Amino acid sequence: MVLALPDSWQTLLAEEWSQPYAVELQQVLAHERQAGIIHYPPSCQVFAALAATRPEHVRVVILGQDPYHGPNQAHGLSFSVSRGQVLPPSLRNIFSELSADLALPKPRQGDLSYWASQGVLLLNSVLTVRAGEAGSHQKLGWERFTDALIAQLNQRHAGLVFMLWGAYAQKKGRLIDRQRHLVLSAAHPSPLSANRGGWFGCRHFSQANAWLQLQHQAQIDWSLPE
Known about the structure:
4-stranded parallel β-sheet; alpha/beta; 226 residues
């Protein structure tokens, strides 16, 4: 199956997606699928974050590492799981910080599509992973592709909020003009990282809304429908 960019992102990324490294990346993924290797998210959801948030609508970028590698978890939006799925530990920690930061009830379901509909691009640095093998598709070319995506947003927009969660995501910080955008960095919300410090108390959600208000933009409603 060919991984097709959503139409709304073609102008920004079609040339990048046709580069030799990206063609090779797609070939590797295709060969693995033909060999019976399961990938997450499913091919039809690899670009779900881009499909959910058009480039001209982006106001906040939440950047993670790579998708969940367990069954029925990753569906193309970073940190999100489909409605009805058990909340992964990282997402539970996100909701704990959200509740402490904004005095909101902790959401009971983990589909973050409502955030995406408001201009929150839920992006991972690496967009696919082999089942049960965290980090297995790192260094195949996804990092270069998402670098190009971030660089395009940095150049074409002003006043964005970039939330870089974890050391892997923070590598993207070099691509962002901090005179024009707000960059918020924190430890990854996974238990291993979060419990070492640097996640709880980061207050990214309130800081993002304060920044958007300064930019004369509507704040994000960080609550989630039940």
